[in-house]
Model the fold of this input.
Amino acid sequence: MSFLEKLKFHAWDSVGVVVSHLQKWRPRGCSTEKDFEKSLFKYLHEKLPEIQVTKQYAQGRIRADLMVGGKVIIELKHNLNSTAKYQRLIGQLTEYRDWDGRVVILLTGETDPNLRKELRSFLRREGLTEEDWDAKVAVFEK
Done:
C-alpha cells in the first residue's frame, strides 16, 4: 500500500480506495456469500496491510460482513433475487443510517434487475444515493 493510497483512505476517499480494490479483486471458486466474504477478506488484508479489516463486525445494532479501517462497511449480498433478501438489506441499511462511516453494498451472483432498481430508488428516496461523491452508500456489482 502506497503512502498516497493510505493518505487518501484516511483523509478523504475511503470508499474510493475500497472500490478500486474491489474492481481488481477476482474471486475464484466462490459459490456462497460466505465464500465471497472469505475471499474478499483475504484479498483486502493482502492489499491494505496497514488498514484493519474486520470480518463479521458488530457494534450495538450494527452487524456488517466486513469493516475496513473503521470507516467503510462492506455488506455482501449474493444472489439478491427475492423480496425477503431485499427487505433484509433495507433493514440493514436503516441500521447503518446513524453510523458515521460509509457503506459499500457488494452484489455478487445473480441480482434480480427489478430489485436492483428498487434498491437504487430506495437510496435516492432516503438521501443515501451514490450519485453524490460523498454519499453514504455505494453499490458495486461483481
About this structure: Residues 3-141 form a domain with the Trna Endonuclease; Chain: A, domain 1 fold (CATH 3.40.1350). The mean pLDDT is 87. Residues 33-47 form the longest helix (15 residues). The radius of gyration is 14 Å.
